Sequence to fold (385 residues):
Amino acid sequence: MNLTTHVYYVPPVNLMGRGCLNEAGPHIHQLGGRKALVVTDEFLLRSGIADRVLDVLKKEGFESVVYSDVRPNPTCKNVHDGAELLQKENCDIIVSVGGGSPQDAAKAIGIIAANGGHITEYEGVHKSKAKSMPIVAVNTTAGTSSEVTINYVITDEERKVKMVMVDKNALASVSINDPELMTGKPADLTAATGMDALTHAVEALVTPGAYPVTDATALATVRLIFDYLPRAVKDGNDIEAREQMVYAIFLGGLAFNNAGLGYVHAMAHQLGGVYDLPHGVCNAMLLPFVEAENAKHVPEKFRAIARAIGLDDSGKSDTECARYVVDKISELSREVGIPSKLSELGVDDPDLDLLADNAMKDACAPGNPFQPTKEEVVKMFEHIL
Fold:
């Protein structure tokens, strides 16, 4: 008998829903520690959102030191500058405030603080030996799900490569998804992060690593995003839409955290690493074209997705279901204002050979339902030229 064991990773404590940040104090207090390194970016510091988290920490008796230099695609320098500040200030807990960039930077800082060395040594799967000090991940965008996953991505500035780390030792101790921290975000950011979450769900559904538990969470994610992302983009203060997107990103994060990703992410990482482009936008641009290729190999994987977004699949073939899914993804992307071509992002002559070579080495590539040749990867990139 061929038995398969699945390991399901999820943070021990997860708070979600309106106003849940205000209830976070006791959960943070239980982690111990006296001094927090708060990892965020300049926008969140200026906007006052980071201050709301600092107030919670203060009420629980924590001192705080703020590291706010995290870039949109966090770099090795960001990680090591943050780790140096953590050590200098004798911090014993990390609190990340932001979307995927501060979350990823915080996880990398935690790994370096616990294991030493250079962050480039941890590229790949489960490379660290020691668990990070406690991380409280306060999420502010409905997108990356980094606050609940074992994945993080850091840009190696020298190689111009986005390094993908998959490491159970980087998992946060507490995740906080409060939709009140997400209201008023710009439409383009809302669209990009929402389409990132959709990519997580779709890739988690078609990967060979999928199993019934991840399928259930991923399908719920797809339904919620199609229902609520357009509303959140149209009205940044639609609190119901924001809250439902919180549930979507949480469920989607659990799906890909445990099933894996594929070539959409493998390719998007290269666009971000070489051209410093927004990760969610790159995913959204690539998603329909990569899934159209995947559908040639595993069309049966798309039937459940088609049903989740409204298709009556009675009498429909797997291929028809897959075509419906790809078309609906493209329609949603257009509806929320995602660019369709790299030239709209200021990239007119990308190095497709470099992008393809690096994509094929990416840690997400093995999770794709088929393994494309370099020529096939180049052709998929060409769709967004």
Notes: DSSP finds 14 helices and nine strands in the chain. The longest helix spans residues 212-234. Strands lie at 13-16, 35-39, 63-67, 93-98, 124-125, 135-139, 151-156, 161-166, 174-177.
